[in-house]
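Worked example (supplementary).
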Amino acid sequence: MNIKKNGISIFLEGDISKLPVVFIHGFPFDHNLWKKQISKFSLNFFCVAYDVRGLGKSDPGDGQYTMESFTDDLEMVIDVMRLHRPVICGLSMGGYIALRAVERIEEKFSGIILCDTRSNADSNEGKINRALAIKKINSEGVKSYIKEFIPSCFSEESLGNKKNLVRETISNSEYFSSKGVKGCILAMAGRIDTTENLSKLSIPALILCGEQDKISPPDVMKGMADKISNSEFYKIPKAGHLSPLENPDAVNKYIDNFLKKIDA
Ligand code: MLT
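After joint prediction of all chains, the assembly is encoded as:
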């Protein structure tokens, strides 16, 4: 089922009486990033996924976003859907949102799953690269930016052996509005560092990282896991930055064990 609230396109699958799991995709993608997880976990859990404002089927609005406004949108989804202590599951930019959400309102969640993400803010070099990305979109258009950026998220293995997946992922994002994509880039550049909060977390955390992830590499994610008292960390083989798409079987195995423990 698909509904729209406050300009946010929300996708619901599974039995509403079951433990809710909220999936937040990364940039520049939409809820389809989690399709292999939703099809499996909707059998035993209430799966809620939504398109981050500016991407997918959510309205771009004025294109002025912050990590704070993205976190407000997440809270709105939880409140509108009356979700009781969902597990939150975010990849990359979705992880930035999840990390800020547990910093603000940890009590609203029963667990956190972080895939291919990081808690530190952009370095100066990172911010300059965001500016270059916006410049490229302004001069060459969003389609050309997406065609160049998305392949850099995949592992060498996926680029060689999963050409259809790479093509599909690009074509799924090519229609995104340039206002929405640029707004997300600025929101990521302006996000705060959430590292200090990691050691304060008390909910269980599952940390997953593609072994060939160059954007949020395994040593960075292992460092995050080490700071969280109740955490498990696993590397996902044959995957880069998009582990839920590149190796869904391995990702699903770890998520399944984690959700079953929370739901026990
Ligand atoms: C993402 O996958 O969400 C982005 O690549 C993250 C980022 O650019 O920082």
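Two points are worth noting when inspecting this output. The first helix runs from residue 35 to 41. The beta strands are 2-5, 8-13, 20-24, 46-50, 87-91, 111-115, 205-210, 231-236.
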